[in-house]
Amino acid sequence: MSLRGTRAKGVLHWALACALLATASLFACTVDDVLDGKPCGPDGECAPGYECVQEPCGDGYLCSVCRANPQPPDDGGGEPDAGTDGGDEVGGDGDGGDGEADGSPPCDPVPPPCKLLPDCTDTPPECVDGTWVCDTGFEIAETRCDGLDNDCDGSIDEALVCTLAGDGTAGFADGEAAAARFSEPRGLCAHPSGGVVVGDRANHAIRLVAADGSTSTLAGTGEPGADEGPGDQARFHEPCGVCPALDGAVLVADSGNHRIRRIDALGEVSCLAGSGFTGFLDGPAEQARFTLPEGVAASADGRVFVADTGNDCIRLVSGGQVSTWAGQCQSPGTADGDRATAQFHGPTDLLLLEDGALLVSEQGSHRIRLVSADGELVSTLAGSGVYDDLDGPLATAAFKRPAGLLAEAGGLSYLAADYGNRIRRIDPAGDQVSTAIGSGEPGFVSGPPESARFLHPSGLARLGDGRLVIADTHNHALRVVNP
Ligand SMILES: [Ca+2]
Ligand SMILES: [Ca+2]
Predict the structure, then answer these.
(1) Distance from Cα 170 to the centre of ligand 2, integer Å
(2) Model pTM greater than 0.85?
(3) Core-most of 37, 85, 286, 399, by most CB within 10 Å?
(4) Once rounded to an integer, what is the mean pLDDT over residues 128-155?
């Protein structure tokens, strides 16, 4: 560290600190106060009984100031801490390096900015046990999803994972964000309104959540069934994946009905493909059979790809016909290769890439697969196949039942929701899988992305304003990541 202390800085600090302390009415400035903290002379001179020491005084500077009782240098001896934290942690001492003595330790000579919420007016901080405290809700970096600009930087709850809708309890209720209830929300996709569509699995309904979290029901009565017709009369059975289609329609992998359903822009529900019987059968859409399909993706030319989860293959709906797009149906496995011999194991979600290739998450083999644009070649993009949380190179990284997929800005990297309570980033060019969001610990905790907690997140989508939404399935809530 370069020592860039200046007398001018020292004087400024002393004057500021004294003024701040006086403002705080902690005590008035006395002669001793003036001597204690006074800038040293050019050759380190101080008044008798004072010693010239160097202290940080902001912006990376060190200032030379006179102190009556200068702090001894850190001896690393791990003296007992006067505070209450860390006394019970093995090896926790000594890391502070400040060698505090008993009693009330001094604070860093330069107090932090301190403001009174919610209007961010300046207010003096207090020195409590060696730490400057703003007892006003103000924080140096925003950590709380409380609708307040806690760090007074002009943005509210920025760079935080917050709750968009729901409160952690299962239920079926429309309304404002905090009043809305979901039950195992699974698939997500963008809606033309700027909100997101939710496959609300255990509610047997398709929900619509606006950017402010207010929630309505797009289709489904809440009771399982297969009725067609207006959204408020139609029924679904454990719907999972959803995707936008042409003309503002939404497609649904209606898993428990073994069908692909369609909700048109007016809310009318119909069947796109699937007889409703479980099994495997290619052919005319109304006769074809799927088994517990969970994922669906539509291309701009009207083709619809289906992750036929229970049949362990990828199906295609096009021109009123259902065919097999990739993999040997009803032959679960891990083989890469051409479309006829490749195998899948529990394909879950689909992401159609710009070049026409299809990204497939697999809950059965814990990998991310890639189907070439012509469907002829299946490969493994990421995942060793081991059920684990490992980040690292694509081939050795490990997932736990990866589900929802989403392309990141630029389309060169992808996000995958992982059963291990994290959102993983897959970066093919950099040959890396990393953790984008989530501590990995199960829970329902908002805050900075690295400490946020989820419970089996599964769906991913973006609001019209660009914010990432996560279907936090077993917290029965939708979470949002603010920029
Ligand atoms: Ca802020
Ligand atoms: Ca806040």
Answers:
(1) 26
(2) no
(3) 399
(4) 90
